[in-house]
Design brief:
The chain is an alpha/beta fold and about 250 residues long. It has one domain: Zn-dependent exopeptidases (Aminopeptidase, 3-Layer(aba) Sandwich), CATH 3.40.630. It is about 45% helix and about 10% strand. Strands 2-1-3-6-4-5 form a six-stranded mixed β-sheet, sandwiched between helices. α1 crosses α4, α4 crosses α9 and α6 packs across α9.
Length: about 250
């Protein structure tokens, strides 16, 4: 991770870097973060290519670092940047959430969600993805483990579509090569414990962006510039996968 400053050298063209900067800091931000249901409803058929899913939110903070860094906040930050880069580069994407909230009441299915919040949050992320007609799904998360020595991004893939492992491998390889050269982790097939990947019928992955239980990695993830670097690596891998998938199709 100390070598992350070398990430951009020889990686992407200057035009893509320009798109990245414009998307993150230009006037496009307001358009990119409109209500996502409205975007999906207004978009023409096949306009939404990807759903980017910031995990957790609201009363569900996810895991946390020793100094109180919350997974839900990091997930949203990285997901926003990934989506901004994709949109700026012509790969239309939407976010499952744009605010600090769970999605259990997204469709108003119940009057009382006590005891049902988590399952409806997951069901609604799935439902939203299906309604957009997106071709690909990427969920953003953080990891934690009792042993603080472990670090590094790791990607899980859905067993339901062969494209899932290809996208997972591409993200894992990009980040290992350009952001985390010391990362030796391999992609993993998800099981039924990962609700969304177990049920998705399109190419779908879950990206564990790092371990909040590792002091050094948590410090990196708290740095906005590092998160943008990581987001760029994830986004570029997604774009390469999508481009190749379209060409093969």
């Amino acid at each position: 991770m100390k070598n992350r400053t070398k990430f951009l050298s020889g990686f992407v063209s200057m035009s893509l870097v320009f798109l990245f900067i414009a998307a993150l800091f230009g006037g496009m931000r307001g358009l990119l973060y409109r209500n996502q249901s409205t975007i999906a409803a207004d978009a023409p058929e096949d306009a939404v290519m990807l759903v980017i899913d910031p995990g957790h939110g609201g009363e569900d903070g996810g895991c946390s670092s020793a100094d109180g860094l919350l997974e839900k906040d990091l997930n949203l930050s990285i997901a926003e940047d990934v989506s901004a880069i994709l949109n700026a580069a012509g790969y239309p994407s939407v976010l499952t959430r744009t605010e600090d909230t769970l999605l259990y009441d997204m469709y108003g299915d119940r009057t009382d969600y006590k005891g049902y919040k988590k399952i409806y949050d997951l069901k609604n992320r799935m439902r939203f993805t299906e309604e957009t007609g997106a071709k690909y799904f990427v969920s953003i998360h953080m990891n934690k483990f009792p042993d603080p020595q472990y670090s590094g991004l790791q990607v899980y893939y859905s067993p339901n579509d062969p494209g899932s492992i290809q996208m997972a491998d591409m993200i894992q390889n990009y980040v290992q090569k350009y952001v985390q050269p010391e990362n030796s982790r391999e992609t993993k097939k998800s099981n039924k414990g990962i609700y969304l990947l177990h049920r998705m019928k399109i190419p779908a992955v879950l990206v564990e962006c790092g371990f909040l239980s590792n002091t050094e990695e948590a410090a990196l993830l708290s740095d906005a510039s590092y998160r943008k670097t990581l987001s760029l690596g994830i986004a570029c891998a997604i774009m390469e996968y999508c481009t190749g998938d379209v060409a093969e199709g």
